[in-house]
Amino acid sequence: MEPRCALVTGGSRGIGSACTLELARCGFDVAIGYNRDRQAALGVARAAGRYGRTARVYKVDLGKAGDAKDLVPRVLKDFGRLDVLVNNAAVAPVKDIEEITAEEWDRVMALNVRGAFLCGQQALRQMRKQGGGRIIFLGSQAGQTGGSFVGAHYSASKAAILRLSKSFARAGAAAGVLVNCVSPGQIDTPMTSSFPQDKVRMLKKAIPMKRIGRPEEVAKVVAFLASEGASYLTGATVPVNGGLLMP
């Protein structure tokens, strides 16, 4: 089989690192986008290498339009192709709605929405040339409900991602580029560790499964969407939330 390449943005920790490792386990060479923690990204790359896959790390600030536009071409230069993009990178400030400044609003939207759009745009262009591929957006239950802990800017950005994924799905379907969105609920990650823990405990009681999710459980769904098993699935939003939200 021809080697397959998957790019995971925000791939150095949390859901992103879990997705990177699961895709490597499934036979993909992996490109790991990261912003700050190079050592963490290299650690994920080493772990992916244990599955016999090639792994490379790419420092990128997806809040900068130039960086976001250049990431996919950098990956193509090293790997020659791109079969899967996991649009995962995001920031989730915990901020009262009255305290959000215009500058912080713009920063969150630039990274969470514009960065995902520009990466997706470049990936779609390449995948059309190749005759197919998969783009998987990471949404959030906060984008469907307004969120329990995160700021309104994060919730708004993830609501945009839910709809953006459908626009990409329509644009790519005829060319064999399948686009779906995974919408996690409360997952045990470094990002969510900053949430008020008393409120997290209350939320846990409200989850029908009575527990917080694990990054690996999200990654399994992402890997399925990247697989041949999802060959007739596009434009979907898959909730991974323990039953807390049943749309």
Structural overview:
The relative contact order is 0.14. With 247 residues, the protein is an alpha/beta fold. It has eight helices and seven strands. Strands 3-2-1-4-5-6-7 form a seven-stranded parallel beta sheet, sandwiched between helices. The protein has one domain (4-240): NAD(P)-binding Rossmann-like Domain (Rossmann fold), CATH 3.40.50.720. The mean pLDDT is 94.
Distance between the termini: 39 Å
Number of domains: 1
Question: Helical element count?
Answer: 8
Write down the overall geometry. globular
Radius of gyration: 17 Å
Largest sheet: 7 strands, parallel
State the CATH topology: Rossmann fold
What does the secondary structure layout of this molecule look like, with pairings?
Elements (H helix, E strand, L loop, with lengths): L3 E5 L5 H12 L2 E7 L3 H12 L5 E5 L5 H15 L4 E4 L14 H29 L2 E6 L3 H4 L6 H21 L4 E8 L12 H10 L8 H11 L11 E4 L7
Parallel strand pairs: 1-2, 1-4, 2-3, 4-5, 5-6, 6-7
